[in-house]
Amino acid sequence: MKIKSGYDLTGKPIPEKVIQDQIRYALGYYCVVFRANVGTFKRGDRFVSTGLPKGFPDLFGFRKSDGKAFFIEVKGIKGRLSPEQLAMAEEFKRHDVLYGVARSAEEALEIVGVEV
Question: pTM of this prediction?
Answer without folding.
Answer: 0.87
